[in-house]
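agent: user wants the full assembly modeled, not chains individually. Plan: 1) parse entity lines 2) check alphabet per entity 3) run joint structure prediction 4) return tokens. Steps 1-2 passed, two entities, 302 residues total. Proceeding.
--- entities ---
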Amino acid sequence: MEATNNTSTTDFVVYAVILALACVQVFLLKGKFVPMLLVAFIQAFLAVNFFMHLGSEKKTLRLALIPATLFVLMMMNMIWSDSFRLMHMKPFAK
Amino acid sequence: MSDANLSLDHAGVAMEDRPFAIPSKKLVMWLFIISDACTFGAVLFAYGYIRNAAADWPHPFESASVLNALLMTFVLVTSSLTMLIATRAAKSGDKAKALRFTFITVILGLVFGGLHLKEWFGLIGQGVRLFQNPWGAPLFGAAFFSITGLHLAHVLSGVIALTVVALGYKRGRYNADDIEIWSLYWHFVDLVWMFVVPMVYLMNVSAG
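--- prediction returned ---
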């Protein structure tokens, strides 16, 4: 099984970077939605690539997993227009 | 199909190579993880929807709660690191080290659960229930307890699974691959927390 071929030094560096990014979120970006979300995506990328070793798996596995997941998550974004309509109390278009 | 795509199984029968070059159970874990990612995605999107739609969404988290969330992040990310060390030790055949670090991961998971419950009881003490709270939109409690409860359930499931796999690994029932496969689950739980903290805690910090 190919998986654990990174050095353990890399593990410690990635661990430190993820924790540093968590501190950035808490102390610098608190309440700022988009920057916090971007930092969360960077943390997620580091975790998937270096902790879960998806980057060192076969390309076909990455292609089977990542686009499908991203597609489903992107499709969920269609709810936002309705939630903003409610926020501004706008009725449905007649 | 050419012979290059065939291999022999333990009984000497010609089998087609694995399409993704990983064992079936690891593929199953990956499939579970992406389906679970969609579940958490749906829950977080639903939370975003009701938060947007509520005019008086409460912001109850003081700096103590935020620091508690940061401490929980530290514990969970550290547990991912110890799980990585355990996986690496299992792969290199160091059974004692693999077991030691797997159990350290389990303990860190329990510490995380304890910190989680501390936060829950703090909010319950302030009057937050599933459908009411002293500050505003009544769905705040349902959203908060659902999201963090789903995550806590995953952490506790991971604690149980890692304990079972570690004990099985000690007895020789499971091997290093099983440790690695359950480490994937543990890292995923860690990954989800990276989205829960900003969306649920840091977006609801008290201005005062």
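agent: reporting back. The two ends of chain B are 69 Å apart (CA to CA). Residues 78 and 203 of chain B are 24 Å apart (CA to CA).
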